[in-house]
Amino acid sequence: MTPEMTNPIKRRRQRGFTLIELLVVLAILGLLAAVVGPQVLRYLGSSRSQTAKVQVQNVTASLELYRLDTGRYPSEADGLAALIEAPKAAPGWNGPYLRRAEGLRDPWGRPYLYRNPGEHGEVDVYSLGADGAEGGSGEDQDVGNW
Fold first, then answer.
1. Short-list 86, 107, 113, CA closest to 98
2. Hey, is 132 helix, strand or coil?
3. Rounded to two decimals, what is the model's pTM?
4. Please, are residues 83 and 145 in contact by the beta-carbon 8 Å criterion?
5. 56, 78, 111, 118: which could form a disulfide with 124 (CB 3.0–4.6 Å)?
């Protein structure tokens, strides 16, 4: 046996971290969280807007299929629900055009808005963004098929 193994004081110092080492590691982790945290939150916010853009495109494509089958877009009274269930006055309906009703809700949990006739095209499909109000910028910006 070596002398270091027989001396209990030297053996105790070799096992673990000192308080200073732990504090340094915690300080480094705190600095990383302060720098990286806001970037992650910004990325998560922008991913919701990107998701809304893709979903609006999917709903618009489904509306086009609906129009090809029935000869017209759903009325505002029928709304986007006509993509899931056949409305009473829709001869030629060959849906459902969307697999799930969740596809009609934006990433913020609100239903997509539908306008027929649209202000920006034949029909408008849009979300009011994170704030739920018209206009805005950044994450609060409206997302539509225009």
1. 86
2. coil
3. 0.66
4. no
5. 118
Confirm if 130 and 48 have CB atoms less than 8 A apart.
yes
Amino acid identity of residue 43, one-letter, is: Y
**Tens digit of each residue's pLDDT (9 = 90 or more) over 71-104:** 999 999 999 999 999 888 888 898 899 988 888 9
HSE (side-chain half, CA atoms, 13 Å) at 62:
25
The structure tokens listed for 33 are 């969280």
Q: Which residue has the higher pLDDT, 16 or 12?
A: 16
Q: Are 66 and 46 in contact (CB under 8 A)?
A: no
- CATH class of the region 52-146: alpha beta
Residue 79 in tokens: 């709304």
Residue 82 buriedness (CB in 10 A; 0-12 / 13-18 / 19+): buried
Interval 100-141: pLDDT, tens:
888 899 998 999 999 998 898 899 999 998 888 888 777 778
DSSP letter at 79 equals G
